[in-house]
Amino acid sequence: MNAQGPYAAVDIIGIKRDGGRLSADHIAWTVAAYTRGDIAEEQMAALNMAILLNGMDRAEISQWTAAMVASGETLDFSGLRNSAGAPMPTTDKHSTGGVGDKITLPLAPLVAVFGAAVPQLSGRGLGHTGGTLDKLEAIPGWRADVTHEAMLRQLGEVGAVVCAAGGNLAPADKKLYALRDVTGTVESIPLIASSIMSKKIAEGTGALVLDVKVGSGAFMKTVERARELAQTMVALGQDAGVNTVALLTDMSTPLGLTAGNAIEVEESVEVLAGGGPPDVVELTVTLAQEMLDAAGIRGADPAAALRDGRAMDVWRRMIAAQGGDPDAPLPVARESDVIYAPADGVLVGLDAMAVGVAAWRLGAGRARKEDIVQAGAGVRMHAKPGALVRAGEPLMTLLSDTPEKFAGAREVLADAVTIAPEGSRPANQLIIERIA
Ligand code: URA
Known about the structure:
single chain; Pyrimidine Nucleoside Phosphorylase, Chain A, domain 2; Aldehyde Oxidoreductase, domain 3; 3 domains; 16% strand
């Protein structure tokens, strides 16, 4: 017993350091005491490192997640009704983050077409993957901050809302994540899984589809690590009563033909208009079907709702409900610079990480939380893996308001492109595996 409670943090660290397992009481106390400020940062850093090295079993991860959920408020959508007074099941999607990943934009309105409520609490980007809110903020007038009451009203009336997560969902995670970031402990699968799932469970969704990205542009570089993360998160969802499934999807190359903010909105609107790049359409339709199945909505045809304009109608209402003008012209970068194909052949590789870092260097992303992003900046791709290209043909257009940024983007893209002799094929398929 010490002044702050029944345990001493140093004893808990010792159990994990020596490969032992923590009890539910150890975990509940540790997470609550850390959130209150009763465990020192260096002690939590040591415990995180012990967890990274020695792992946690399923019960420990579940209890760790539950303790993070209990550290803040939880939302409850169970009483949600549509305009006709009928109950609405909630269903949500989380992507572990990738380059050109604008899927939330067409997906949320598409799923809402079929009577589900889609409360998509999203974040801003940091580093080479863009943030959904940064993309939507390229739309003139659109606001990410929505009160809880406005969110409920919009879900009932429109069916979908994409907005900033309130400050008090899983505050333990916010503190822990900042600590992990500077202590080399982000990479632990138990800590990643509990971090992601605590926020989703606190958000109160009934069903959840996880898009776990694999490849150079993703957090998880190998299928084995991605599978382990997906299995851990699906188990956590099930333990918390959230109907959860996961897809492993390719992130060795960017999604679609754009990586940036306004240009990704433009591409999403193309998808909502029944066009758009085939990979973005395929992933949007597949995830929509999974979200609807997980919510118990049968007989939906998401591809038809993209073709016939129903998803576009919901998009327009969703944007307008948050102050955005769906008809306003999107910001355009002041300057551009074209990269040409160096040889004839088949484009077999276009590295996601390089394109993500290039878009970020061009001004589409931020290095520090307080940086301001350029709405028009990014990379527009003119060919994707599988395409036949000719030497001297445009491969990518770099976009920025600040032309001095082009050199840094070109530098990172220097080895991003692989061209092979005609007849070659790219190695990767988009949807790799389903885990339920
Ligand atoms: N995203 C999160 O929310 N948490 C992690 O730990 C890693 C990625």
